[in-house]
Amino acid sequence: MAEQISSLQTGIKYKETPIGKIPVDWEVIPVDKICKIKRGASPRPIGDPSYFSESGRGWVRISDVTSTYKYLKKTTQYLSEEGVSKSVKVEPGNLIMSICATVGKPIIVDMKACIHDGFVFFSDLSKHVEKIYLFYFLQKNEKKISGKGQIGTQGNLNTDIVKKTLLPLPTFPEQKKIAEILTTIDDAIEKTAQIIEKTREAKKGLMQRLLTRGIGHHKFKKTEIGEIPEEWKIKKLIDTAKNEKYSFTGGPFGSNLKEDSYTAYGVRIIQLQNIGDGQFLDNYKIFTSEEKADELKSCNIFPDDIIIAKMADPVARACFIPKTDKRYLMASDGIRLSVDKNEYDLNFILYVINSKYFRENAERHSTGTTRLRIGLTDLRNLPLAIPPLSEQKQIAGILFSIDEEIKKELQHKEQLESLKKGLMQVLLTGKVRVNVNYEADI
Description:
Oligomer: single chain
CATH topology of the largest domain: Adenine-n6-DNA-methyltransferase TaqI, Chain A, domain 2
Helix content: 25-40%
Structural class: alpha+beta
Strand order of the largest sheet: 5-14-11-12-8
Shape: elongated
Number of strands: 29
Number of helices: 12
CATH class of the largest domain: Alpha Beta
Largest sheet: 5 strands, mixed
Strand content: 15-25%
Distance between the termini: 8 Å
């Protein structure tokens, strides 16, 4: 990758075009001049079971591509021969793009499939256009393309808008080289993502074993949460809290913290959106005044406290409060747990709350049909398997080291994604040119 990037060139002459400055030897062409744009189709009526089967051609829907990065390898539904006859076929290697709900997302199909009417298919691509170059152009401009959609209950984009989208087009060898460079980075991103996923899966299995079987035990006893080592005890969640006022408490009633209490700065309010499954999510920030936080003193929460979500998804997920500020204020759907560190390891308790057995128990004690919710009383009485403090620390240490590995890989993935974003910006606009005479192993 480094060798390829080192082959990039600057010192370029530009010309003005409808899409801005591009190199003088590039063209600007509407997408429908380099391929045919065909919209997908859905068998009608959509719920007719005769259109579906257990296998065969996949039926690509918006939900199948929402979290797909580049290649679509499977779908959740498959069409019967009758269903296929009423839809639009795509083959492995074909390029499609969503035009409904998740608008403007390009995907390369890696299976035999049919496309829902929320997609367009770029067929009969000109021999002068590299398909992967077109994919990266669409990916880079996803937000811009999405912004051209029609406003409604769901965003959507008609095929005429797609057809008129202007494509900056270098020579075919340059398209190919740009595609190769970006593909190399994408491959590294995908490899890192696979490492992260495998490590997370390994952690799940290890958590289940360590938090119920412990380390080096041979004798076990039956309890309400299953078999645990004989030396371990069953405690309620409330037992892990400090013997202090407000060490286990919920957020304020909604009527006590309304929108008119929000301020531009002051004491940060911890919302449901901030509570991740084991990690604090920092991308949503609202504040209230010091006076309001003082008024709701029982709902204050502090660094190293654990905050637990009353509502899904998932219910009872928990994370630490960050050390950025001296204090925070919980919103109504949060529960504060200030752990007694003399008897319990802070990290161990967080791992238990986010464990499979605790989560499943919390769900059983929750109410609600569309979205689960657990009450403060039910949560405080949920059981935990607790080893001696020394073993708590051992178990937490093992799981923490895995979390650190995941964190390191996530940072690496973010760096690669940042590099790709920067290269897309300069390569797909011609601000930096590739040397098409340069050959490197991909």
